[in-house]
Amino acid sequence: MQYYIEIFGTMASVIVAISLMMRNIKWLRILNGIGSAAFVIYGIFIGALPVWLLNAFIVIINIYYLVKMRLTRDRFDIIERPIHESPYIDLFLKFYKNDIELFFPQFKLDDVDGLHADLILRDMNPVSLILYKTIKEHETEIVLDYAVPNYRDFKNAQYYFNAIRKRIASEGTHVFVARAYTKPHAKYLKKLGFLYDKTEAGCDVYRLTVGN
d(Cα 34, Cα 130) in Å, to the nearest integer? Predict the structure, then answer.
């Protein structure tokens, strides 16, 4: 029995350690809460009052902040500019270049002429960048849809596409085209409501129709 208790305690330690490597604050608190809850059980089993009491307090703190995050309404804003009109966009792309390549391996910083940029602010923090171009009337290709690691919780995308729907509500139907070169990006597009259209060289093409 003692052997299994020690294994359980070790697993709790691993979960807490993994939680501290999370960039996303929400997942950090979720995993940390799970690990701390496991330590509560472990502390009770070994009769260590300081262990389970401290970790019970940590569980409560994590639950408190998770509930607070759930109830807090973030303020979102969009800055719309042709890409070369904002020096910040260039700095943003260079700063996150390596992370962008993980999800958009085809994207090149030198190939952005003619693109428009929508920068999403969340409580005045720049959290997402969408680069796009017009293919033809009522059809837009999204070249890049990138969210910074700490805010990769899907809220940015929900806000952005809801804003787009409101923007074009009186303009009729509009089609958005996106190419997925990686599985995480394809999964993200499907969650947004994009439908698979076809496969091209090295990527899958998805389309989203909004409006009337």
Answer: 35
